[in-house]
Specification:
alpha+beta; 5 helices; about 25% helix; about 25% strand
């Protein structure tokens, strides 16, 4: 059992000539603190098409064991049981929304902003560092 309490949303684009496959754009990567399954369900209820069987270059084709055994990427990922991964389009952009565990999320705390834009309201840096100033300082050396 994986404890997938948070998520990562990242912009993706279709892979040419590979139906159902997407690639990360490297843009619009955000931490997501709402339940991923609920978010995907709400999007569908609002009329968005969510692809629960989408494949992402670098995830699904990197190691067969990941695609077969990680419940986020195999047949266990379905809306009836609370999906943990999906691809959808909103406001002209296509996104991957992926549930992540706390260890994965902690790394993203330092790599990308929160989806609301207010990092400290949702993830105070003090939850991750004793000295907040050091996390915000640039390396002068």
């Amino acid at each position: 059992m994986m404890f997938l309490l948070n998520g990562i949303r990242a912009q993706v684009e279709p892979v040419p000539a590979k139906t159902g496959w997407y690639q990360l754009t490297g843009k619009h990567i955000e931490r997501w603190t709402m339940d991923v399954g609920d978010t995907l369900s709400d999007l569908e209820n609002g009329g968005a098409q969510v692809d629960y069987q989408a494949k992402i270059l670098g995830i699904h084709d990197r190691d067969a064991e990941i695609a077969e055994r990680d419940p986020r990427f195999n047949e266990e990922n379905n809306p009836e049981d609370g999906a943990t991964f999906g691809v959808y389009t909103e406001a002209g952009r296509t996104y991957m929304l992926l549930a992540v565990n706390q260890a994965e999320y902690a790394l993203f705390r330092f790599l990308c902003p929160h989806e609301s834009g207010d990092d400290d309201a949702f993830d105070p840096i003090s939850d991750y560092r004793l000295d907040a100033a050091a996390a915000n300082a640039t390396d002068a050396a």
